[in-house]
Specification:
Blueprint (H helix, E strand, L loop, with lengths): L5 E4 L2 E4 L7 H12 L4 H7 L17 H13 L8 H6 L1 H13 L2 H20 L20 H12 L7 H9 L8 H22 L5 H12 L24 H18 L2
Antiparallel strand pairs: 1-2
Length: about 260
């Protein structure tokens, strides 16, 4: 644990999450920091204290209009096809929905959100910057609630995570470079390498560098500005023998990034 990156919460050193390899350390230290010192925050973060209710849909101007729209959507029919009999058949459901809207506690919801926003920021601060390249910023970082983000981390890095060998392999092999400048290429290399490490963790073995090289070329091909990077100067260094595997691929990455720098 001495080599682990940590953050202090309530006087407890919380190990920053780097992935599946230190998931248990992260969870245990986070629980020690919050469950007893701040049980309300721990319950909020782990989904035991959900939002008081969902914001109800827009209520039309008249009860009659609302009823007709509700029944049409519920039965999957056109608004004009809603009859008095349909309204009568759905009376119980309509009453339940109207009662929910009338009783919705907006003030309690607002107070809950005021607690959830800093909780979500705190949770994200316990994840390593390394995960910036392992998680999709458009999807993985778009959890509306703290508990949703917590569940996502559990699902992705926990012992029963959904990313099986096949899933991790699919993520790695589906990566494609779509950038247009040096910084974007540099970030893409970092993300490509991180995805490969995830596959190796699942396989409990290293990926052959010849396969690594082939996949990297597939990832950067298909764009006009990358075609020149697929010529022999970027080709694999001689050998790809076991003792040269890591250095060989690092040279390939550096040539890709370096030549991108020349074109800035």
């Amino acid at each position: 644990m001495a080599d682990e990156e940590t953050i202090s919460i309530n006087g407890v050193k919380v190990v920053k999450l780097r992935g599946s390899s230190n998931y248990h350390l992260w969870l245990a230290s986070l629980q020690r920091a919050l469950e007893v010192p701040d049980p309300k925050l721990w319950r909020l973060m782990t989904g035991q204290d959900p939002m008081p209710g969902d914001d109800p849909a827009f209520l039309p101007l008249t009860t009659k209009d609302f009823s007709r729209h509700f029944v049409a959507k519920k039965l999957g029919i056109d608004l004009e096809a809603v009859t008095e009999q349909y309204l009568s058949d759905c009376a119980a459901d309509l009453k339940l929905v109207r009662d929910t809207i009338i009783s919705f506690d907006y003030e309690a919801c607002d107070k809950w959100v005021e607690r959830d926003i800093p909780a979500r920021a705190l949770l994200r601060s316990t994840t390593s910057d390394y995960l910036e390249y392992d998680l999709d910023p458009d999807e993985d970082f778009d959890c509306d609630q703290c508990a949703g983000y917590f569940r996502h981390l559990q699902a992705r890095y926990g012992p029963t995570g959904y990313l099986t060998i096949h899933g991790r392999w699919k993520i790695w092999t589906s990566l494609r470079y779509t950038g247009a400048n040096y910084e974007q290429r540099k970030k893409f290399v970092s993300r490509f390498k991180a995805a490969k490490v995830r596959v190796e963790q699942a396989l409990v073995t290293s990926i052959d560098s010849r396969l690594d090289f082939s996949q990297f070329l597939s990832a950067i091909s298909g764009r006009e500005e990358c075609e020149s990077l697929l010529t022999p100067p970027l080709g694999p260094p001689s050998g790809f023998h076991k003792e040269k595997d890591i250095k060989a691929m690092e040279d390939v990455y550096k040539k890709f990034i370096g030549r991108a720098a020349e074109s800035r």
